[in-house]
Amino acid sequence: xxxxxxxxxxxxxxxxxxxxxxxxxxxxxxxxxxxxxxxxxxxxxxxxxxxxxxxxxxxxxxxxxxxxxxxxxxxxxxxxxxxxxxxxxxxxxxxxxxxxxxxxxxxxxxxxxxxxxxxxxxxxxxxxxxxxxxxxxxxxxxxxxxxxxxxxxxxxxxxxxxxxxxxxxxxxxxxxxxxxxxxxxxxxxxxxxxxxxxxxxxxx
Length: 204
What we know:
- By secondary structure, the chain is mainly α.
- The protein has a domain at 58-197: Tetracycline Repressor, domain 2, CATH 1.10.357.10.
- Helix content is 74%, strand content 0%.
- It has nine helices and no strands.
- Helix 7 (129-152) packs across helix 8.
- The chain is elongated.
């Protein structure tokens, strides 16, 4: 039996990513009841039964979708906030500007489907301990990632203030996608300034 070729592994990873992306699309457009292997086959442009090889169960399909969702969201976070490490001094105004950029990136384009799919899977997490643990772990990582930002703003309690900041961002992202008409960028900026600039989140 010949050893697996690296390109074969890359191909399998790429196919899993395609399936995970298709699963997110199905969740966002058809809901949890519409998440079937046949529907994901079609969304991924694959032949009938192809998804079964990589995700033989519905639970595995949800895990693939979640993994892809978390990776993509962290890519957006890294692209938006990562360069702040080199910004000296880091001011509240700069942080507000980047949060606005992050919210825009998370609520436009294909990110909209991720927000909807995340919301749907959060409901499922209330009845599935494994999915709940995945969400808790991912969210904890994002809060930890945010701590260095608030610490750079002279926060007296980075863990608590990072949690506050993440709650605020989560709420605004869901507000833009899931609830009625979108808030204007100007209104979001005004809201963020009240919370970040003119609050105990940073030492003035």
